[in-house]
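ugh ok fine here u go
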Amino acid sequence: MEKFLFLLSAFLLVWGLRLQSDPASASKGNKFAALGMLIAIFSAVIMPLENSKSNLIWIIIPLSVSATLGYIIAKKIEMTSMPQMVSIFNGLGGLSAVLLSFTEINKWIIFPDAYEIIVVVVLLSSLFIGSVAFTGSLLAFAKLDGYKWSEKLTLPFQHIINIVFIFMILVCSYLFISSSDVTYLYLIIFLSFVYGIFFVAPIGGADMPVVISLLNSFTGITAALTGIIFGNIVMLLGGILVGAAGTILTLLMCNAMNRSLLNVIIGGFSSSGPSNENKEQGDIKEISDSDFAVQLFYSNKVIIVPGYGLAVAQAQKLCKEIQESLEANDVEVKYAIHPVAGRMPGHMNVLLAEADVDYSKLIELDQANEEFKSTDVAVIIGANDVVNPDAIDDSSSPLYGMPILKVWESISTVVLKRSMSAGYAGVQNPLFFKKNNKMYFGDAKESLQRLSSELKNL
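structure:
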């Protein structure tokens, strides 16, 4: 029975991941994967205790409490804070791997014949990677949430210091295996925790989605290693899936920014590099509520480019209202989604799904760039770096080479923004000063509310 349940949970995990590859079936895939994980927990934890029911209470209570806390947190979390939640949950997964590895290594210290040396090496690897995932994810959370102190942890010659830490961890691991001295084990844990902080410290805030994905793959690797030790097929399979998916996603995001993973880890464009925020680039033109509404209402085709500003303002439902008003006047409306728009991949897709925007209206970068040429108005809502022409025109720009949405190829563009401040990458956007662009200043929610009212009055 136990093997059958393991097989069923493995199938649900794989099938759930397959369904998540398509936005239309992603929600169903998430539920299948969650059910698979629930069956895996039952099979791995509850069933082996059928002959020692007195221990069940020590498992059921913490499982119930943690499940309840997880549900409450996930239910209350805002879409803008989803990357932070993912980071925290991922860090806790890394900590779990640390605790499991620590327990099994202690068993080997007491009973040297319990494991062969190669198994101890695997456990130490799991402990190290889990430690890095834990403290690294906590720091990533702090950077994403805007804690100022999180940007001040980088030391001079940080990358040389990181190499020294790796060397020290390797030396301590060798000494621990040779002597079984628990002091070295504690030292390994301490050094690994500190290394996790230093690993993430040089990386800029705009690169945090890449880092979270990378740390997520680390957690998957630790789960797979732990699955090998315990002979748990589901843990092994789940770890491989998470590790592989996290790695692939990391590389895809790096490609979307036209940067290598090494470049991100060494330190990205938002951790250093000058800002051109105050650079004089020309005059801007503002647009009024009524002029904006009329321009959209009598267009043939409008493409909306959502960004983090839309998520912060929680204005996605107003976007849907405006879309419906325009479509009632036979205006074609689509949404251009950049791979790294928002704070994590799929951020904009989920945001628009909350407002019941049809998935068929969402177009990806390459298709969008083709369609901008036949677009009357491109409306940029809270996006900045993903529509910056400097990525193509200015080789000195830290964004240079990054594939972007060429919104300026539309007949006209309108940018919704609070102010003229630079984007998340810390660089100004020449798009604001182009002749066919107008600015529509204000909070995205308030601005779209005014625009929606004007459209309904036409």
